[in-house]
C-alpha cells in the first residue's frame, strides 16, 4: 500500500532528513496493518528517527509543540519544505486524536493497561495521559528493567553499625584543602547505606578517591563483623576509561591508610582490576546477548561503574539483568558530560536534582551521626534538607570541589560557567580575561577564518611535534630488543597525551574526516612530517595515531583505545623495517599489533568530543564549526573543556555558534523517573 505520507517519508529520506531504517519501519507497518492510519505511520517513523538521535522514546506532546526539533533538518536538503510538510501533518492532529489512533492500533500496546509487558506489538504507548510517550518495544523494555531494578535496590536502606563512625574517621582524615562540609565523606555514607547509589562530580572532585575509601569502609565492616569479604567488580564503558580508572585506583590504594593488625588482609580485599562493561558481562560474537544475564548472574556482591554518563539504556538494562537481585550497584560519573552515543542519558536523568540534594531528616541524622557533618551547599551555606526527596535523592551525592584545577583554575572556572546554563558570551570572555592575568595561563581563544588558517595549523603541528619527533628517533637496537623498544613506545604514548585536537563533528571540512586530511597535509609541510609521513597518505605510516572504534576481543583492544603506528627494525639484515601499531597495555606496558589485523580503527589527529570521553590530555584544542548543528550543546563544550588537564584552546570562526552553544542543553526524551516520590516508591 502506498499512501501520500509514505511518499513524503521517502522524499525526506532522500533529502537526508530521515534514515532508511526509519522509512523501512513505517513501510513494514503499512504492509502489516490494513487499513492503516497515516498518523500511526508518522509516529512510527518519528519514534525510530528520534531513537537514532539518542532519544529513548517519542514525546508526542513535544512533537506537536516543536516540529522544528524533529527529523535531521539541519543537515537535510530543502529543510524549510520538509518542515512545512511535516507541520501540515502535525497541525491536522491533536494530542488526543493522535493518542486515540495509536491506542486503537494493533501495532501499539498501551502501558496504561495491565499486561503490556507480556504483549508483543512493536510499539508501546507509555508515560502519562498528560505526557504520552511512544516507544519502540525494545527500548520500553530496557527502561522498565532499569526502573524496576533501581526501585528494588532503592527500597533497601541499610543502617550502618556504630563501628562505621570510627572507620570513616580513619579513612577520611581531616584536611584543610576542601571546603566544608566534606562531601566525599557524606557521599561515602550515602552510598554505604543504599543498594543503589550515585556519586557524581566534575573532573578531579575525588570520585575515585571516595569510592576507594567507600570500598575500604564496606570491607572493613565485613572484617570487624567477621563476615566474608564482598566480591567487588569495577567496570567502565570503554577500555580507555577502564585503564584510566585502573591507574587512579592503584594510586589511591597505595595512599590508603588502613590501620590495625589485619590491615594486610583488609587491603588485599580491595579490587585492583577494572574491566570494560562488555567484558564484565561477557559479550559474545554475533549476538547482543551477554553471557551473564538473569539466568547466569555475575558473581558479584557489588559492582561499581565509572564514567556512567557514557552508559546507554541497553547496556544499563543488560547490566542490571546480570546482577543478582541482592547485588549492589554504584554509579560514578560527571552528570554534566555528554550523554551516551547510543540512546539514553541515564546518569543525567537520574542526577537531575543532584545539586539540590533533597535529603530527608532521616538521611540528615544518619549523615550527622556518622560524619558530624550537615549536607550543605558549600557555595551558599544553604541546607540541602527538605521534605521533597525520593529514595533516589537519599542515595545520590554530588562532589562539589575540584582538587585537580587548583594549579590551573581557568579550566575549572570555564567548565563551571558553561554548566551554569545562563552564561552569555560576555561572562565567557571574562573568564578568559581573568585567566590571562595569571602566571600559569590555561585558556586560549583562537579566532580563525577557515580550517586552513595558518595560526590553527601552527597550533596543531606544534602540538603534535613532540611525539612525532620521538617516533622519528627509534632507539638503536635489534628487532628483539623488547626492553628498549617498549620503553620508547611508552614515552611516545606519554608525549602523545600532551596534545589532542577535538571537534564536534564527524563529517565535512570541520569534522574528523576533513580535519584529518587537512592536518596530514599541514604536518607534511613541517620538517618532522616530511621525514615520517609519505606523500599520497598511505593507510599506514610511522606516527599514524589510531583510535579503536569497536571492541576487538581477539586482540584485547577496546573501543576508545588509542595506538600509534611505529617503525620497528627489520627482523633480518637486508629486510625492510616493519610497521607495528603500539597500544598501551596495563599489564605488559605495550602491546604490538600488526596493522593488517586492525579492522576498526580511524586516524585520530582530530577526535570527536564524544570519542574523547574517558580520556585526558595536557592540552586540548576544541574546534567549533562555523554553522550551528543540533550536536553543538553545552554538554559538548563542557566535555571538551574538561578533557584538558592544563591548557584548553577554543578554536572558532563564528562567535554566533558559541553563543548558541552556551544556551543549548542536551534534551533527550525518556520516561525514567525515580525522582518523584511516587515514581520512586512505585
Ligand atoms: N580529599 C582530598 N584531599 C586532597 N586531595 C584530594 C582529595 N580527593 C581527591 N584528591 C586529589 O584530587 C585528584 C583527583 O582525584 P580523583 O582522581 O579521585 O578524582 P575523580 O573525580 O575520580 O577524577 P576524574 O575526573 O579523573 O574522574 C587526585 O590527585 C587526588 O589525589
UniProtKB/TrEMBL annotation:
Its EC number is 5.6.2.3. It holds the Pfam family RecD_N. Residues 604-650 form the UvrD-like helicase C-terminal domain. Residues 14-127 form the RecBCD enzyme subunit RecD N-terminal domain. GO terms for biological process: double-strand break repair via homologous recombination. It comes from the Bacteria. ATP binds at residues 201-208. GO terms for cellular component: exodeoxyribonuclease V complex. One of its GO terms (molecular function) is ATP binding. Keywords: ATP-binding, DNA damage, DNA repair, DNA-binding, Exonuclease, Helicase, Hydrolase, Isomerase, Nuclease, Nucleotide-binding. In the RecBCD complex, RecB has a slow 3'-5' helicase, an exonuclease activity and loads RecA onto ssDNA, RecD has a fast 5'-3' helicase activity, while RecC stimulates the ATPase and processivity of the RecB helicase and contributes to recognition of the Chi site. A helicase/nuclease that prepares dsDNA breaks (DSB) for recombinational DNA repair. Binds to DSBs and unwinds DNA via a highly rapid and processive ATP-dependent bidirectional helicase activity. Unwinds dsDNA until it encounters a Chi (crossover hotspot instigator) sequence from the 3' direction. Cuts ssDNA a few nucleotides 3' to the Chi site. The properties and activities of the enzyme are changed at Chi. The Chi-altered holoenzyme produces a long 3'-ssDNA overhang and facilitates RecA-binding to the ssDNA for homologous DNA recombination and repair. Belongs to the RecD family. Heterotrimer of RecB, RecC and RecD. All subunits contribute to DNA-binding. This is RecBCD enzyme subunit RecD. It comes from Marinospirillum celere. The lineage of its organism: Bacteria, Pseudomonadati, Pseudomonadota, Gammaproteobacteria, Oceanospirillales. The gene is recD.
Amino acid at each position: 500500500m502506498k499512501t501520500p505520507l509514505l511518499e513524503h517519508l521517502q522524499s525526506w529520506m532522500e533529502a537526508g532528513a530521515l534514515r532508511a531504517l526509519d522509512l523501512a519501519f513505517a513501510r513494514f507497518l503499512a504492509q502489516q496493518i490494513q487499513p492503516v492510519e497515516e498518523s500511526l505511520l508518522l509516529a512510527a517513523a518519528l519514534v525510530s528517527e528520534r531513537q537514532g538521535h539518542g532519544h529513548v522514546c517519542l514525546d508526542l506532546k513535544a512533537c506537536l509543540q516543536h516540529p522544528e526539533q524533529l527529523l535531521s533538518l539541519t543537515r537535510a536538503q530543502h529543510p524549510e519544505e520538509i518542515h512545512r510538510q511535516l507541520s501540515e501533518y502535525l497541525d491536522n492532529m491533536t494530542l488526543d486524536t493522535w493518542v486515540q489512533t495509536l491506542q486503537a492500533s494493533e501495532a501499539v500496546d498501551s502501558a496504561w493497561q495491565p499486561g503490556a509487558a507480556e504483549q508483543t506489538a512493536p510499539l508501546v504507548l507509555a508515560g502519562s495521559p498528560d505526557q504520552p510517550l511512544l516507544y519502540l518495544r525494545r527500548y520500553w523494555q530496557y527502561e522498565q528493567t532499569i526502573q524496576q531494578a533501581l526501585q528494588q535496590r532503592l527500597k533497601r536502606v541499610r543502617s550502618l553499625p556504630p563501628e562505621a563512625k570510627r572507620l570513616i574517621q580513619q579513612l577520611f582524615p581531616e584536611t584543610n584543602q576542601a571546603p566544608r562540609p566534606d562531601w566525599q565523606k557524606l557521599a561515602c555514607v550515602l552510598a554505604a547505606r543504599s543498594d543503589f547509589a550515585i556519586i557524581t562530580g566534575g573532573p578531579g572532585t575525588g570520585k575515585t578517591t571516595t569510592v576507594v575509601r567507600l570500598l575500604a569502609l564496606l570491607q572493613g565492616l565485613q572484617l570487624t563483623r567477621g563476615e566474608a569479604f564482598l566480591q567487588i567488580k569495577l567496570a567502565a564503558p570503554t577500555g580507555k576509561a577502564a585503564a584510566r580508572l585502573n591507574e587512579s585506583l592503584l594510586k589511591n590504594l597505595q595512599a590508603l591508610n588502613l590501620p590495625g593488625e589485619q590491615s594486610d588482609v583488609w587491603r588485599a580485599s580491595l579490587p585492583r582490576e577494572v574491566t570494560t562493561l562488555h567484558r564484565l558481562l561477557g559479550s559474545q560474537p554475533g549476538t547482543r546477548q551477554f553471557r551473564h544475564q538473569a539466568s547466569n548472574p555475575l558473581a558479584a556482591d557489588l559492582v561499581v561503574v565509572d564514567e556512567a554518563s557514557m552508559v546507554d539504556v541497553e547496556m544499563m538494562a543488560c547490566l542490571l539483568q546480570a546482577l543478582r537481585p541482592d547485588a549492589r550497584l554504584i554509579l560514578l560519573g560527571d552528570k554534566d558530560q555528554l550523554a551516551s552515543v547510543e540512546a539514553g542519558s541515564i546518569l543525567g536523568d537520574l542526577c537531575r536534582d543532584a545539586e539540590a540534594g533533597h535529603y530527608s531528616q532521616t538521611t540528615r541524622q544518619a549523615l550527622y551521626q556518622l560524619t558530624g557533618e550537615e549536607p550543605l551547599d558549600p557555595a551558599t551555606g544553604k541546607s540541602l534538607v527538605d521534605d521533597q526527596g525520593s529514595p533516589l535523592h537519599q542515595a545520590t551525592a554530588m562532589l562539589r570541589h575540584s582538587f585537580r584545577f587548583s594549579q590551573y583554575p581557568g579550566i575549572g572556572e570555564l567548565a563551571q560557567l558553561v554548566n551554569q546554563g545562563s552564561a552569555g558570551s560576555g561572562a565567557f570572555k571574562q573568564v578568559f580575561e581573568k585567566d590571562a592575568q595569571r602566571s600559569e595561563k590555561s585558556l586560549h581563544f583562537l579566532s580563525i577564518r577557515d580550517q586552513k588558517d595558518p595560526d590553527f595549523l601552527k597550533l596543531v603541528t606544534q602540538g603534535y611535534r613532540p611525539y612525532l619527533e620521538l617516533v622519528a628517533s627509534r632507539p638503536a637496537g635489534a628487532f628483539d630488543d623488547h626492553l628498549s623498544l617498549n620503553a620508547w613506545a611508552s614515552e611516545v604514548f606519554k608525549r602523545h597525551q600532551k596534545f589532542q585536537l577535538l571537534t564536534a563533528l564527524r563529517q565535512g571540512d570541520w569534522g574528523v574526516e576533513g580535519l584529518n586530511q587537512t592536518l596530514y597535509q599541514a604536518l607534511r609541510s613541517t620538517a618532522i612530517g616530511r621525514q615520517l609521513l609519505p606523500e599520497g597518505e598511505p593507510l599506514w605510516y610511522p606516527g599514524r595515531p589510531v583510535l579503536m572504534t569497536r571492541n576487538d576481543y581477539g586482540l584485547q583492544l577496546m573501543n576508545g583505545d588509542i595506538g600509534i603506528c611505529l617503525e620497528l627494525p627489520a627482523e633480518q639484515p637486508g629486510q625492510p623495517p616493519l610497521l607495528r601499531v603500539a597500544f598501551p597495555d596495563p599489564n605488559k606496558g605495550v602491546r604490538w599489533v600488526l596493522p593488517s589485523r586492525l579492522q576498526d580503527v580511524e586516524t585520530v589527529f582530530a577526535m570527536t568530543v564524544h570519542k574523547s570521553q574517558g580520556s585526558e590530555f595536557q592540552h586540548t584544542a576544541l574546534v567549533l564549526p562555523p554553522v550551528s548543528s543540533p550536536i553543538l550543546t553545552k554538554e559538548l563544550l563542557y566535555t571538551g573543556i574538561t578533557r584538558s588537564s592544563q591548557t584548553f584552546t577554543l578554536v572558532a570562526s563564528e562567535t554566533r555558534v558559541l553563543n548558541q552553544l552556551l544556551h543549548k542543553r542536551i534534551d533527550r526524551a525518556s520516561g525514567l523517573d525515580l525522582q518523584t516520590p511516587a515514581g520512586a516508591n512505585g
